[in-house]
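dumping this here before i forget
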Amino acid sequence: MSGSQLMSETATEQPLSSVDFAEGTDAAVVFLTDALATSPGQSTSEIEACGDVTARYFWGDNALVLDVWEPAGFVVTFNEPSFNGVALESSGNFAVGDNAQAFFDALPPEQAFDEYNDGSGPFVYDKVADASPWGESNVYGGVARLVTGGEVVSIVAPDTTRAFYC
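structure:
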């Protein structure tokens, strides 16, 4: 997953298919259903305390989640390194559970948000824009969250660090 699309690849990293996030929620759900070879569960009630999530698609309790954020679109979250035998990785070639501290440390300051001043925090691994489509002025694209020590605990796209706090 990059900051702008989902892509499926063979075991030897040859591209199979892709879907741009701009194609919309339905296209992303169809793509993920095909790639993961299983239909998602779905909840249509308000999910988050922020009140902006109006629907949730999920594969394997929460291994992969697609939240519909109104009116901005949707956000895909990887919470596990794989599902149904399919690796779930960022375009930076890391997955949940990997250590991405070196990647985080090499980013420009505006792409790394070290909330606790301990070398951890969310970071934009694939910058798409300088601001979000809903008016936030921080960088937007593919985002990962680390814990102290550098382990990736979740990967989100397309978004800002907002997805981790709502």
